[in-house]
From TrEMBL:
InterPro entries: DUF3243, Uncharacterised_YmfJ, YmfJ/YflH_sf. Gene3D superfamilies: Protein of unknown function DUF3243. It comes from the Bacteria. This is DUF3243 domain-containing protein.
Length: 85
């Protein structure tokens, strides 16, 4: 099963990657930009695997670039306290 198929696993995965980036000294601006790039890639290239991802994809598709950055930043906040690292 792909990490994308289960919402909680996906959040844990993102949280782990976020903590790893922070532990390696990546600043918040770079993390935010990467989150935006990942969100844009997923929206354009990956079919949503669950209801939560479908909602995010739908929101992303109608959002302006500024709103997409906001969505990406909110996802970073959401997973900030998740993950195992």
């Amino acid at each position: 099963m792909s990490v994308l198929e289960n919402w909680n696993q996906w959040k844990d995965f993102l949280g782990d990657r976020l903590h790893q980036a922070q532990n390696e000294g990546m600043n918040q601006e770079v993390i935010s930009d990467i989150a935006y790039q990942v969100g844009d890639y997923l929206a354009k290239q990956v079919d949503p695997k669950n209801e939560q991802e479908r909602i995010l994809a739908d929101l992303w598709s109608v959002a302006t670039p500024e709103e997409q950055h906001a969505i990406a930043n909110v996802m970073v906040k959401l997973v900030q306290n998740n993950g195992n690292s």
